[in-house]
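R.M. (postdoc): so does anyone remember the format we settled on? I'll just put the structure tokens first.
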């Protein structure tokens, strides 16, 4: 059986990045003669044939897509952006990235600019500012795929993880590790913060299933998801008459901030308090102690989002799709028994 040679295959054979191969295939002018010859030799040796999807994107289309993220500096979003670019490049797509700050007006403005510019074929949107009617009423002349949570009924495709189950998995892990007073930190009261509400739902459901009474004092909302926000929340929890022995943080940034504050307060992790984060950012493998975290399948998120977007770009007529990708709990030192 013949297997089509991909740009990734050529890149591996030539010892270069997939984007470099894409630049050569697409006759990008700023490639050195030496590099062009090296890549061309691998293209010839592997008998590479131009990707038909990439060719169709170039015929009457820009080959550009926009990725709108709340905060580029937040590690999780940076890692998602990396995965999107990794999958887009071999398809001959260029990813234009912009930051919304999670603000409703800016999200709407950037959606409008992208859609009306004629520069892009589609938009990947991770929204923290649009919800309810504002999201349902978004209309553009280019397709949009939502990343994260869908907070309203829309015609847009959507890809994300099961946040309720993932949060439950984190809580159950702490229970199995011997914790009986498990606190949670993260989230705010804004209507658009559906992700945190789902994680809170999963956390509380796991505690109820274990027969533990609800204790509102063990949940602390935070203004944001920064390490400083976590430090303030940890201080509040430690000031309580009965401090927690387990801590579920709604993001790894919060968890890493919590680890630092616990260290400052002389609290040993995991001996006195066990900690679990969410997102499994690269930093979680290097914290002290290393951080147990929920790992969303980020490559799968990027692949599913791009696949659905390119289907729409090609004019595929299908009903709005809701794709759930896998997650897993990665156990490390911060929750060791």
């Amino acid at each position: 059986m013949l297997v089509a040679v991909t740009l990734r295959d050529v890149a591996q054979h030539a010892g270069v990045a997939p984007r470099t191969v894409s630049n050569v295939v697409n006759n990008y002018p700023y490639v050195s003669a030496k590099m062009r010859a090296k890549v061309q030799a691998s293209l010839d040796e592997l008998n590479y044939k131009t990707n038909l999807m990439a060719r169709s994107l170039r015929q009457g289309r820009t080959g550009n897509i926009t990725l709108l993220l709340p905060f580029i500096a937040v590690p999780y979003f940076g890692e998602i952006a990396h995965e999107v670019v990794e999958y887009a490049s071999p398809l001959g797509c260029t990813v234009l990235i912009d930051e919304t700050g999670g603000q409703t007006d800016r999200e709407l403005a950037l959606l409008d600019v992208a859609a009306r510019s004629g520069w892009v074929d589609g938009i990947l949107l991770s929204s923290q500012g649009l919800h309810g009617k504002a999201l349902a009423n978004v209309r553009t002349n280019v397709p949009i795929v939502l990343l994260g949570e869908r907070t309203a009924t829309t015609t847009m495709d959507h890809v994300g993880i099961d946040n309720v189950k993932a949060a439950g998995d984190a809580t159950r892990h702490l229970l199995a590790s011997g914790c009986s007073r498990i606190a949670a930190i993260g989230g705010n009261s804004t209507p658009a913060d559906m992700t945190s509400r789902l994680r809170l739902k999963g956390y509380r459901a796991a505690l109820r299933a274990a027969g533990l009474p609800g204790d509102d004092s063990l949940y602390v909302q935070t203004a944001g998801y920064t390490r400083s926000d976590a430090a303030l929340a940890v201080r509040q929890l430690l000031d309580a008459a009965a401090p927690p022995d387990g801590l579920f943080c709604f993001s790894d940034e919060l968890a890493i901030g919590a680890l630092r504050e616990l260290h400052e307060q002389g609290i040993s992790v995991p001996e006195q308090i066990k900690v679990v984060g969410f997102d499994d950012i690269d930093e979680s493998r290097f914290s002290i102690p290393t951080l147990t975290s929920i790992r969303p399948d980020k490559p799968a998120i990027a692949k599913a989002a791009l696949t659905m977007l390119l289907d729409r770009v090609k004019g595929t007529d299908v009903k709005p799709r809701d794709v759930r990708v896998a997650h897993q709990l990665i156990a490390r030192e911060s929750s060791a028994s």
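R.M.: ...and that's the designed sequence above, right after the tokens. Also worth knowing: The mean pLDDT is 89. Residues 194-209 form the longest helix (16 residues).
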